[in-house]
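Subject: sequence -> structure tokens, single chain

Hey, anyone have a minute? Need the predicted structure for the following. Not urgent.
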Amino acid sequence: MLPDKLLKIHQGRHALMEERVNFIPNDIHVSESMENLITIITAPNSAGKSIYLKQVGIIVYLAHIGCFVPATSAEIGIIDSIYSRIHNIESIHQDASSFFHDLHQMANVMENSSTRSLILIDEFGSGTNVNEGKSLLVACIEELSKRCSAAPITLFSTHYLDIVDLCESREMVKEITIESTFDDSGRLQTTHKIVDGRCPLQYANELHNIRRSLENQETFTDERLEDEVEKKLYLETHIQPHQKLVIQSAGNLLRYMDTNWKAISTDNMPPIISSLKVFSLKSQVLIDDSTYLALEIFSTATHPSGFMKGLKGAEQMGFSLYRLLNQCQSKIGSDELKMILQQPTNDISELNKRYDTIEWCLNQQNTSIVVRLKRMMKQVYEISRCFKKILENPDKMYFWKIFRSSVAHAYKICELCRDSVREGENSGLIEELGEAVKDQVEIMVVFMAITEIVDIDEGMQENKFIVQEGFDVELDNQKDYLRKIQMNIPEVTQAELRKYFPVFESCEYTMVPEMGFVIAIKSPMASPSDSSSGPGMGSKFLFQTNDLFYYSTPCCMELNDKYGHMYNDICENESLLAINQDLSEEYEHLLSLCWDSATLSASFYVIQTMEMFIVPEITDLRPMFSYTHNLFRQLNPIAVMASGHESFLREVMTLLKLPEDANPKDYTATAIHGTSEPNNFMVFPQSEKSMLNNRQRLWSIKISGTLTLHFM
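Reply:
Had a minute. Here:
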């Protein structure tokens, strides 16, 4: 006997719908002991069946990302996956009708769902005639019912009022409906409240007029069925459609490397892998694409301007859970929130940590601290791109400025968290952030080194790497000597300027990087291209910036021959002090510090002050979890691959048509943070082997394995 499964929500609400309308809350109480794991909802159109299914799905989903839920109270058992069949999809270019996609989605649900799944099915079978639709729905209900106490928590909505009567197996099945009445004029009115029982026949007939001549409906012929079955079997012998992660990883790798290799590669250095982060499916709640779409977790809206459609960055985030929850103070916080939404977890300790963080932030005693944290979070950026630019070219002072600011504010956030936690208080992530800097003296050393060595303000003006005065005595002496030379040009040289430039507002010698000494003239009376009234013979026009015109003369060449080596020596000495090596050694800690701060920014505490959300009670009565071959079929493009499990990896190898004598340990799958954008990749450390149907080869990069793009 498996442990009891539980889903008990009192006065639950749809998190998105209540933003727009006066929403009617509803309850749900499902458990193994009540023998109602399979719930059938019958009601007229527009009564709210689909909204109710989505409401339940969203509440369970929010609980598994560590967020408060919109309800008066909630007890939710841990689940390992959410599946749905709610949205109808047609694909003209694949010659696939909405009914075909319905069958495909339902087959995926029936094959991959486990005893700890949540299944949401809306009007399955409505895309064909009544007889076929009923038969398909009855088959699904009976299949789940035969699992008895091992059946997943399942909610069906349908217009087939007698569907339960047609089922031979009715274990764990319960019927509910949405309360409806006729008003004085005879019109049907719904209260949107869930009640026990079946929808009365007269209500459904009144609204839908479903009396149809069934004998005239064309049936689903055996010939068509056999053709589709054969197609599916043929495709699955090569690539199983449920194993989307492997398919997308292979295709995206080749596409990404073809189009973006220059963005992650330079002439003088290989791509930089900054850190390694391993994820496991053991605590992952698996959700397929259709469920993400049905629950409106993400929703992309196109740009309102027609000429912007299709351009990079033109798409905007539409009304969705992500947009509702995104109260982050920084771009890196929004990215971390997106990753959390894409990786719901059933790890009790992780969920409790997130709940404790939200409660700590809502505590009125901590209000002033939260305000300070929010202010500092605005100054934390994703530093991997800055780090890459610094290594490629230290003269880009803008990235030095962002890098220093991000590290400084991330460190201050951790220090504030460390000083704010009271003894014996459950503060979740706040306490973790405080612990992150207790023994990390190296991080502060790097920050102080940047502050003491790099003159960011002057470097921004001159657009080059400049060392602070006072840090290196020998370098300061070289700069002072060169500065005196520029200020004390001999009188004969000044007279020579009048010879070449008889008419000018101001004229002086200056040093230009890579060019040496030049003459800068402000507002000449004639255009440099006018030889008749321009500068004298022997001068050469170089370039113009704003109202300054730069020339080279024989005197400039003499100065370069005499003092030019000093400028080169200064540049060389400054490049040696660019502390690239120190940054590389401590970069992983610095990156972790910034992402920890981003996690706090994504902890959803702001929305809780606006909405009546409560902490759900999470129960975990699962038996010991183990990986099986069937688990691999539950992978979706959002899940991150596990590593180190031989049975799991053996199935991956079988799918990729690898030799039988291959060692699974050579084919681990992990995820990393890289310095190029996007920052999430997967690495398959392996030799070059054939992939899929032995015609595609993995693109191997000689770093630590094969670099594979991982889309989040």
